[in-house]
Amino acid sequence: MLRKLKFGSVLMLVLAIVLSGCATPTATQAPANTQAPAETAAPAASDIVLKVTAAGAGQATWVRNFNPFSTTSLFPTENGTYEPLMINNRLAGELVPWLATEYKWSDDNLTLTFTIRDGVKWSDGTAFTANDVAFTFNFLKSKPGLAGMALVAVGETGYIESVTAPDASHVDFKFKRVYTPGFYDLIAQMIVPEHVWKDVADPVTFTNDNPVGTGPFTEIVSFQDQVYQVDRNPNYWQPGKPAIKGMSMPIFGTNDVAATMFVNGDTEWTGQFFPNVDEAVIAKNPTDLHCWWPAVTSDGFFMMNATKKPWDDPIVRKAVSMAFDREQLILVAFQGKTTPADITALSDGYAAWKVKDVASLGEDWTAYNPEKANQMLDEAGYTKGADGIRLNKDGTPIAAEFLMVNGFSDWLAIAPIVKKNLESLGFQITINNYDPGVTFGKWFVGDFDLSLYFGVDADTPYTYYRNLMSSETFKPVGEQTGFGENIWRVVIPEADEALKKFASTGDAAVQKEAALELQQIFADNAPVLPLWHAPTFYCYNDARVTGWASEANPFVRAMPIADNATGEQLLQMIAWEPK
Amino acid sequence: MKFILRRLGFYLIAFWAALTLDFILPRLLPGDPAAAILGPIGSRMTQVQIAALRQALGLTEAPLFQQYLTFVTHVFQGDLGVSYSAFPAPVTQVIGTSLRWTLLLGITSLLISFTLGHLIGILGAWRRGSAFDVVMPPLFNFIGAFPAFFLALGAVYFFGMQLKWFPIAHAAKDHLPPGWTVEYIGSVLHHLALPLTVSVLVNLQVWIQTMRNNMVSVLAEDYITMAEAKGLTQNRIMFGYAARNAFLPSITGFGIFLGSILSGQVLIEQVFAYPGLGYLLTKAVGARDYPLMGGLFLGITAGVLLVNFLVDIVYTWVDPRVRAE
Amino acid sequence: MAEQTLSPGPSRAGFDWKRRFPWAHIILRHPQARIGLVIVLLLAAMGVFAPLLVPGDPNDFVAIPNRAPSAEYPLGTDPLGRNELALVVWGARESLAIGFGTAAVAILVATVVGMIAGYFGGLLDDVLVLIMNLFLVIPGLPLLILLAAYLRPSTATVILALALTGWAFHARIIRAVTLSLREKDYVAAAIVAGEGNLHIIFRQILPNMINLIVGGFIGTSIYGIAASTALAFLGLTDMEAVSWGTNLFYAQNGNSLLLGAWWVFVPSGLLVALSALGLAWINYGMDEITNPRLRAERELRNALRGTKLQRVRATPVMRREH
After folding, report:
1. Of C60, C80, C259, which is closest to A413 when you measure between CB atoms?
2. Beta carbons of C230 and B145 less than 8 Å apart
3. CB distance B293 to C149 below 8 Å
4. Are residues C121 and C266 in the same domain?
5. Are the Cβ atoms of A281 and C258 closer than 8 angstroms?
6. Is A205 an 8 Å CB contact of chain B?
7. What is the spatial distance between Cα C220 and Cα C106, in angstroms, rounded to a whole number?
8. CB contact under 8 A, B280 and A261
9. Residue A404's beta-bridge partner residues?
10. C124 and C207: one domain?
């Protein structure tokens, strides 16, 4: 009996030790900030806290980081807590003044001056001035290791000579050379307060736990492993906005979980891609749940590594393109929720720049036509061997690896079809799946044969085509290309000419002319194969909040993104109205 | 005491082996280990960040032995490097947030399945051939044959999505401030219910089978016959004599099965998006966050070794033979 | 305990399979084991004859994704528009191949290492036992995930990783049995007679461990199937190879749960469970060989069946029912 007791008590003791370790709630760092300015300053319009799952935020637990110069900061640090100078609204095709109200190029296109908005305050009540803007760009320039949209402009190889604030409401950007498209890099940079950041010793590892920003959502009122809440900025410069109290970000796991949370109303604004969205999601609650996937940015691409044979040959690339049944691919990947791409690779978001009649470019290689594709290859000297395998010009069989990415459900879904389509030309194809990180690594150093690519987020056809086919973005195999920059490694000299023409002028007519030339060059060379107009995944629940961008009210593409490159989500944030 | 010290020595060696494995694995890859480790994420990091990471990981130009020393020193200082996916958070901080949930799920599941499994095993062996014995052990055997994540998916589907009785993700209701409030604890239990049930169902059969087989062996021993002959009550024989002796192998089994129990839990956490270490591990793999993966592997191993050591201590307590040694 | 049922030394006279392979004999007489054997054989046949049962490449796109079962596609289509029936049938190939492949490699290693350690003893034994214990105590799945993350996924690497994490348990048992067999008279006699070590190991000891090896092979197969399914479900294996695990991965990837598309995930999951169950049942037969009391137990129960006799006490005391 005694022994039994002893044994029992030891077990209990052991468990007690372990349990006490686990039961102590340690996730309560939050209150530090709760007594901040809070509700008193702003009119308490509504107590709605919107539940948001942003795209690109698939962590297991939240780790606090609201540093806008970091690549791992949490939603809504960029374009939520911090704001840019201006927003390029791709859908509406217009420039929306934000922290800057106007801009002006000097006559020689070497100085760009922004007028800074009056009456804007930081969330701690300090006034926002042109000095903050100049500080931000100079800070980004002087502190190595920071990330930011304007890094390409102010970095060592950048095109910006200096950034200065001549007075409290103007900022001058001096260019080293004429480079008008640089405008879009500059306006998208998140602006930080000088009075806070000048004292930050190591901004690379700084996690900025309680951010001070100009954006609509700045107050971190709670932060736990699985959820954090960011409330409205009491000093927001747009009166009465945002019309809701705050946003809370529950963590989500697998796609299933994210979709179920949305169905159950546990998230109300999401940038997740849901396979079979109509049946699996919308059908569960058609009154409140809505998805709208505008396809106004880039096209989705099929890419071939042009440093390898036979992919360097435009005829082969065009033949490959014609082997793809784009309608079927779209049906399987997106359940038909977007449209096939054409030979300019331009979506409706570039309507202003696009050639009126695509057929006038004299090519049709995005039309499904495997017979013609085979015939083109035969005629170009790529004959089939006895075993039906098509041969390179040197007689070796054409065999290639099709690189796929784990977790990309839309791509995984079409991988087998792509393989079949390629095999219909007589190529030998192996599919290999890698995790995203590995895939990115292989892409960027050119260690792949064939793969898909999501698209190139670019504000103008200039950046777009520069990334698709210029020598400027080209890197030899083994060296890393930038994100979305000429991973397929095709250089077309004529494109360089046209790009230069575009960049070195401020004249819209000349730029349009250059854009048209670029489209012709793209159609002639097929450096990379546009498959579909890449949709922006966006779903919302309007049970509590209205004012959503939708097909009927398409004022912006309103996808919440954690590591954000565009300010468009801000336009949605200020449009909400409680129901 | 000597036994305890010997075991302690063994666990230290085991930890060193895991540590070394964690060091060697990335360096076994062809090419520059830093490129392999940092390559995936490198393109999204600046040179300074990469240099800092290299330093933290000990991926310097120094000779291998020196790198190893740096690595080991860092680990013993509690520095497991910096997580890529949560840069600049150190790995230990990321792991720390998940630890308590894994412990909560793991320990409750272990306690329940251990107790329940042994009871069923004892009763089954005691009433061999009875309806209970014919139904219960094979039933749990059947359930235990399913992959843990498959049962979890089924539970998510029926009880989470269809009936909506239980939440399908997370460890507690969002927005509830953590604390010793009825509401919060209730919510934690509500979220725990499904993963816990699945975990218990998956683990139950191990204990039932071990205990039942041991009981069958023990019941044939002479001292049981002797006890019968003495006219002791059935309960006394069942628990005081048979079960107590049949129980000994279960304690050693505890250490061995801990690994497989943990494996099941990794997948259960993944399906329920339960924010424990297992879920974190699958996320780290998905993001190819090598420092986090390595840190989790080391942390989980250390935990398993610790539990094994505690089991050894308990074992010396209950088995006089070991003590006499 | 195990050696009690082993045949008493080699008999050179005639080939008596019941004597030589008592496990086969017992398994065939054990009802549960018989069912298990039938299940496993059927599943294996399904895998082997997959090209005949459902011809064509199972990865082919055949119809609109997530189509409910119909006459044309009895198990419907998966989220990739593939014929689910083909995936399930062909999945048996890869899943069972990995399971049996893992078992073969792991048990080979376990037998060699276990026998060397047990037979030669001394420092070698100490070192090998240490290694076995290390592999036993280091948690398997996390190590497996780590390995899979570093190795390029293919069927072979998955088998190797699984074998690496699955061999130690049986090596330890085989070592223990070798140790006790070494003390047997006939082995001692062979050593005295100057027989070579290899001869003794292969002719005297190994034949007496066939039961254990077969049991271990079956047990490790279960582990291989279950663990490879888990790895595939996490997306850590070759995703182009159709296995039950990859089927489940794509089911999850395609929101089948939300769609209520049961046909996409139920069959593969059931078959994994069924193969594990079938193998486990075969092993019950094996258990009776290593633990004769279990067999005595069952035979007693069978003897009692249909009689009015009922066992009421811990020891086999019988009493007529009133």
Report:
1. C80
2. no
3. yes
4. yes
5. yes
6. yes
7. 7
8. no
9. A433
10. yes
Interface ipTM: 0.82
Q: Do A275 and C253 touch (CB under 8 A)?
A: yes
> Tokens standing for A527?
């450096």
Is pLDDT at C95 greater than 90 in this prediction? Answer: yes
Q: How far is A59 from chain C (nearest CA, A)?
A: 16
Q: What is the DSSP string of C244-305?
A: HHHHHHHHHHTTHHHHT-HHHHHHHHHHHHHHHHHHHHHHHHHHHHH-HHHHHHHHHHHHHT
C218 and C170 both lie in a single domain: yes
* Cβ-nearest to B168 among A71, A260, A480: A260
Q: For residue B134, what is the DSSP state?
A: H
**CA B123 – CA B234 distance, rounded (Å):** 12
Number of domains in chain C: 2
Is C59 near chain A, with CB under 8 Å? yes
Average of pLDDT values for C149-164? Answer: 84
Q: Cα dist. A404→A409, A415, A484, C82 in Å?
A: 10, 7, 16, 18
Q: Where are the domains of chain B?
A: 97-287
Integer Cα distance of B102 and B300 in angstroms: 10
CB-CB neighbors (< 8 A) of C4 in chain B:
none
Q: Are residues C265 and C176 in the same domain?
A: yes
Q: Which domain holds residue C149?
A: 24-58+81-290
Domain shared by C218 and C251, yes or no: yes
- Answer yes or no: do A281 and C61 touch at CB < 8 A: no
Tell me: do C125 and C244 sit in the same domain. yes
Q: Do C202 and C315 lie in a common domain?
A: no
Domain B97-287 class in CATH? mainly alpha
How confident is the model over B144-169, as pLDDT tens digits? 888 888 899 889 888 988 888 988 88
Instruction: State the average pLDDT over residues B166-188.
Output: 83
The answer to whether residues C42 and C181 belong to one domain is yes
The answer to whether the CB atoms of B145 and C150 lie below 8 A apart is no
- Which residues from chain B sit within 8 angstroms of residue C297, using beta carbons? 128, 216
Question: In what side-by-side order are the strands of the sheet with A111-116?
Answer: A100-105, A111-116, A170-175, A160-167
CA distances from C187 to A307, C61, C206 (A): 67, 62, 11
How much is the average pLDDT of A110-129?
Answer: 95
